[in-house]
């Protein structure tokens, strides 16, 4: 009896200790971690909420991206006069297009640098200026700062930002991933609904064991996208355009759009194209994006001139002919919005997938900058859906909250321990 009791006691103690250790070493999850091995990068998006009124060009320089790319990613009309100097309102939610690389075996973006100003602290840079996309600790680590209280103005800091690629697919369909900072008001179900995805999909992508999310967590949200099949040696290889938006490529010469009715990338000469190489398909009079249709006995003969990537300063065009059962209708374009001037109350807390077009009463969507053409999508990405993707294998991040379970286990063990002592 005596031996049994002491054995029980030591086991209880051991378990108690283990529980305590687990409790102490549990670090709350901040973002989804995607392991990677190759050096290639992918297109990704950051969900960013403006901390103050900023010009389009200022937001772009905060992330060192092209202002035009920022505008087109958010389907903002770039034909507005002086649009780069337009002031965007504080609390506006924007999608920031970035390049996601592989650094030390983990997907992240490291192309952003920030020059410190006199009043900056690591937390003000992390929480306010970069909207919680980075933490003060991550900034300190990435820049080997030993004393965070001494931050000289004019210091050039690298700002590591979260991103994921997951092979550019979600459930075997082309997708681009948005790194989204959870707000206090958010629930996982509401986020899933807002981005037209499911709870299960979000949980799989983020390797979550429960639907619980915390303010400040960073989720990877898959957004359906149009894939490209440009060759590896093209400078815009791997171009991925999210549904409902545009991308400008080939040195501002070509504009590609995605959606709304299908997810075939559609490219045509950009409205601001100047001094560009030829955009005419060889041995034809068709320009990039042009499609001709001819109804015949066997169906509809479709000829199209499509974009094949930017190679050595040359715009690659490809002429294709196909016989389709029915003639396609005119190409439709994602609706463009005017540069926003105010933020609707709703969108402060609940950014819509197309944040600028929904709920913001002051915004009057204008007609497209894209010249209205009679053409139809001529671009059929050859690398369509891929199979065998394991988007669920997203690694280390989990929003499971073991604390309540552990606490009850602790109480239970304590009681048990006391009983065993009393015996
Ligand atoms: C693309 O966006 C449009 C409009 O926002 C939407 O109607 C459509 O369902 C979306 N397509 C996919 C595949 O999500
Ligand atoms: C061909 O494309 C050019 C440039 O987008 C456009 O101006 C022209 O109207 C198109 N022609 C036809 C026949 O669709
Ligand atoms: C691009 O140009 C360089 C030199 O001008 C040449 O070596 C290379 O083969 C070219 N690449 C392609 C894909 O044409
Ligand atoms: C990733 O996508 C490529 C096609 O773009 C495909 O060949 C490859 O098998 C995919 N890899 C995985 C792990 O799914």
List the helices and strands and how they pair.
Elements: H1 2-25, E1 42-49, E2 54-55, H2 56-62, H3 67-73, E3 87-88, E4 93-103, E5 106-109, E6 113-115, H4 122-129, H5 136-142, E7 156-158, E8 161-162, E9 169-170, E10 173-181, H6 188-194, H7 199-205, E11 218-227, E12 240-242, E13 246-249, E14 254-257, E15 266-269, E16 291-296, E17 299-311, E18 314-324, H8 345-349, H9 403-422
Parallel strand pairs: 1-10
Antiparallel strand pairs: 1-4, 2-3, 4-5, 5-8, 6-7, 9-10, 10-11, 11-12, 13-14, 14-15, 16-17, 17-18
Helix pairs in contact: 1-9, 4-5
The structure holds 2-acetamido-2-deoxy-beta-D-glucopyranose (NAG) (4 copies).
What would you say about this model in short?
The protein is an alpha+beta fold. It has nine helices and 18 strands. It has helices at residues 2-25, 56-62, 67-73, 122-129, 136-142, 188-194, 199-205, 345-349, 403-422; strands spanning 42-49, 54-55, 87-88, 93-103, 106-109, 113-115, 156-158, 161-162, 169-170, 173-181, 218-227, 240-242, 246-249, 254-257, 266-269, 291-296, 299-311, 314-324.
**Secondary-structure element series:** HEEHHEEEEHHEEEEHHEEEEEEEEHH
> What is the CA–CA distance across the termini?
10 Å
Radius of gyration: 26 Å
Biggest sheet statistics: 8 strands, mixed
In this entry the ligands are: 2-acetamido-2-deoxy-beta-D-glucopyranose
Structural class by secondary-structure content: alpha+beta
Task: Give the CA-based shape.
Answer: globular
* Residue windows where pLDDT falls under 50 for at least 5 positions: 13-29, 348-415
Mean residue pLDDT: 80
Please indicate the percent range of residues in DSSP E strands (runs of 2 or more). Answer: 15-25%
Strand element count:
18
Question: How many helices in DSSP terms?
Answer: 9
Number of domains as seen in the coordinates = 3
The share of residues in helices is: 10-25%
